[in-house]
Design brief:
5-stranded parallel sheet, two-stranded parallel ribbon, Rossmann fold, 7 strands, 7% strand, alpha/beta, Helicase, Ruva Protein, domain 3
Length: 389
């Protein structure tokens, strides 16, 4: 080996020393990093052990409830869609009054209201104050429909039947109430598929623009299909002769067409004062041919007015003193004897009762230490003040 080779090897060894030192430094740093990671893992374990809940005592198993969660019913299934909790069971959500944690969620049962029977509906009709002629007419009509159905079942012919009706009488004589009971009665015997009552007046059938009335009237009739369309103050659809163009006539024409198209599952009742209703029916030949059943609602007499008033008091748990009863009977007697064409009948009774409640409240609120008798007892002075309101 010559001097030059020896010199080159010496230089190479000197150049490698810094690289070896660098590698030694990396090894030291890597060891420090591993120690740091190990210390972090130890600290995490200590923290978890300090915050972990105390172990629960084992719960005894109940007979027939193997695998059930504590607090749940035997054999209960977890609610579908609920996330599992720490114990592996699914808890139902608590919103809306549902089962809470640990309770099995039951499928929501559909609440179906029980339909009243024919006997119950007839009893409801009989419970109305007065209206004896109306009650008898309704019962006769129900019997007629029942016999028609029996004849159909026995393949016997029936004459054409029109169940559209005209109710005439002053306000407050129970026309709407009877119509509502009729709709339920017809549903009970299978004449109507639904039995709902849709109440409208002129504003519910007539629009203010050309072409809109037919649409509005059609929508009203469609909402009543399967039930009864009750048109109050129907005479307002046919104004007096010479009044010019009126969209009420368009509503009548639309109504007549819809009645014909849906004659098997629609009943129309038109109602209003006696004389205007007669003019209304005779204003159009189609109306005369379709409305041939008339129910006349007479005014309530004084005794019936008092019975209605007494019923309102009983339902709200108000008691009348003897002199208050005497005053009430005299009040309704005077009211009936002086009535006019706009007599309100039961509507007046309702207004009188509400005035009494207001006067009674003013009087009792001024007392100290209210008793149950104070809150329920109505005296003559209450009625006297209410009568002049």
């Amino acid at each position: 080996m010559d001097k030059n080779d020896k010199h080159n090897k010496t230089d190479l060894g000197r150049s490698l020393k810094p690289a070896g030192a660098y590698i030694d430094s990396l090894t030291t740093d890597f060891a420090d990093l591993l120690r740091t990671i190990g210390q972090a893992e130890s600290a995490a374990k200590e923290l978890l052990s300090e915050t972990a809940p105390a172990p629960r005592a084992p719960q005894p198993k109940q007979s027939g409830a193997t695998g059930s969660a504590p607090g749940s019913a035997p054999g209960a299934k977890p609610a579908p869609g609920a996330p599992p909790n720490a114990a592996g069971r699914r808890d139902a959500p608590k919103e809306g009054g549902g089962p809470g944690e640990g309770e099995a969620a039951e499928p929501e049962a559909k609440q179906t209201e029980k339909e009243p029977t024919l006997e119950e509906l007839l009893a409801k009709l009989d419970a109305l104050v007065g209206l004896e002629n109306i009650k008898q007419s309704v019962k006769s009509l129900i019997n007629y429909v029942k016999i028609r159905k029996l004849r159909e079942e026995n393949k016997l012919p029936n004459p054409p039947l029109t169940l559209h009706m005209v109710f005439t009488g002053n306000p407050g004589t129970g026309k709407t109430t009877v119509a509502r009971i009729l709709s339920e009665l017809y549903r009970a015997i299978g004449v109507l598929s639904k039995g709902q009552l849709i109440e409208v007046d002129r504003s519910g059938l007539v629009a203010g623009f050309v072409g809109q009335t037919a649409i509005k009237a059609t929508d009203a009739v469609k909402s009543a299909l399967g039930g009864i369309l009750f048109i109050d103050e129907a005479y307002s659809l046919a104004p007096d002769v010479g009044s010019g163009n009126d969209f009420g006539r368009e509503a009548i024409e639309t109504l007549l067409k819809m009645m014909e198209d849906h004659r098997d599952d629609l009943i129309v009742i038109v109602a209003g004062y006696s004389e205007p209703m007669e003019r209304f029916i005779t204003s159009n030949p189609g109306l005369e041919s379709r409305f041939n059943r008339y129910f006349v609602f007479e005014d309530y007499n004084s005794g019936e007015l008092y019975d209605i008033f007494s019923s309102m008091c009983s339902k709200s748990e108000y008691l009348l003193t003897d002199d208050a009863i005497e005053y009430a009977r005299a009040h309704f007697r005077r009211l009936y004897e002086t009535r006019d064409d706009n007599f309100g009948n039961a509507r007046h009774v309702r207004n009188f009762f509400e005035n009494i409640v207001a006067v009674h409240s003013d009087r009792v609120s001024a007392l100290e230490g209210h008793t149950r008798e104070d809150l329920t007892m109505v005296i003559r002075q209450d009625l006297e003040k209410a009568a002049i309101m």
